[in-house]
C-alpha cells in the first residue's frame, strides 16, 4: 500500500486510511465518520450487487461445460480420449492471450465495457449448444475465453477504485462468492434442464448452453444502466457525498490521468513480485478449476447418478463460499495476508491428500471435496488482492491484476491435461499435481512475504531527509517509490 510516512511512524503497521493525506491534511475538514459509514453502505449497495450478478453469469457460462459433459455431450460429440480436456483448456488459451490487452482496453473505455464483454461471450455460449462436432466446440470455447478474459480483472479493478485498501479484500471476496455460488446454481439449473432432453429436437446438454447464454444476454442488457462508472464520473453520488468518496479514494487504486505504452507494460511484467503473485494464484486456481470442470464427473464416479451428482455439487460450493468470506474478512480485519493464504493452502492440501490416498469410503472422499473448495476459495482472493494493492494505482494495478488472474488461470492448462479419462474416477495424477502446485503457491507466498518485509525494513531504516513527495510522483512510481510500504 502506498503511504507517506514520518520518522515517528517507522516500524508501525498502519492502514491507508490512517495516513491518507486526503483525509488527514490540515488543509481539509476532518472526515465525518458517521457520514463515511453511510457512504460505504451506499457504495456496498450500489457497486457490489450488480458486479456480483454479472460474475454469477460469468462463472456459470464458463463452468457449464462440466455439467453438459455428463448430460450427454460426451457421447453425442464423441469426446473420446483427451478431447474433452482440449475443449476445457482451449478456453484458458483465449483467456491467457487476450487478458492483459483487454484489461487495458477496459481501463481506457470504462466499466460499461463489462456488459459488452458479456454480450459477446453469451453469443459464444449459445454457439456451444449448437455445434455438431467436437472441433466446432473447441473453436467456440476459444472465442468464449477471449471474450471473458478481462471481466474478472476489470471488475476487481473497479472495486478497488471505489474502496480503500483496508476495505478492498472484503468487498472482492464477496464479489468472488458469485463464482462459488455459480457452481452450486449450475448444478441445480443443469439438473432441471436435464429434463428438457428432446425438446425442439435438442439434447439436454445443448439446452444447458442455449438457455444460460440467453439469460446472460438479458442480464447484460439489464445491467448496462447499473454498472457504475469510474469514481471521477460517478453519477449516483452528489455534493458532499461525492466529495467524500473522492477524498477517500484519492490514494486508492484508480488513477484517471495516467497513460500506458507497450514499453510500460513490459516494464511492469518484468517485476518479480507480479510473477510471485502469478505463482500464488496458479497454485490454488488450478484446483478451483479442477473442481469446476471435473467435480460432476468425480461425484458421478462415487456412485451418484448424473442428476444426483449435479445436486451434490451444491453444498460443496456453498460451504466454500461461507468459509472464504469468513477467513478473508478476518484477514482484512487483522490487516494480514500471508498467514491466511497459507491457511487456505493447508486446508486445500488436506483435501487433496484425501483424494490422492483414495480411501474406500465414498463419504470420506466427498468430504475431501469440501476441503478442496474451502482451501482454494480462501487462498484465491488473497493472492489477487494482496499483490494488486501493493502494485500502486492506475495502469500499474490494472496490469498486475490482469497478469495474476490471467496467467494464474494458466493452471487450467494443467488441470485439463492431468485429469486423465483413463483414471476416472480416481484421477490420481490430477489430484497429485494439484497438491504439488499448492505447495508451489505456499512457497511463492513465502518468498513474496519475505521480499516485501525486507524492503519495508530497509526503507524504514534508511530514513527520509528529503521533503514529502508530491502524490503524483508516488502514483507514477508505485511500489518503486521509497515512501511506498507493502502490505504483509
Automatic annotation (TrEMBL):
GO terms for molecular function: transmembrane transporter activity. One of its GO terms (cellular component) is membrane. The chain crosses the membrane at residues 86-106, 118-134, 146-166, 172-193, 205-227, 314-331, 338-360, 366-387, 399-421, 433-454. Keywords: Membrane, Transmembrane, Transmembrane helix, Transport. It comes from the Eukaryota. Residues 47-459 form the Major facilitator superfamily (MFS) profile domain. Gene3D superfamilies: MFS general substrate transporter like domains. Residues 1-30 are annotated as: Disordered. Residues 1-14 have a biased composition (Polar residues). It is found in: Membrane. InterPro entries: MFS, MFS_dom, MFS_trans_sf. It is a multi-pass membrane protein. Pfam families: MFS_1. This is Major facilitator superfamily (MFS) profile domain-containing protein.
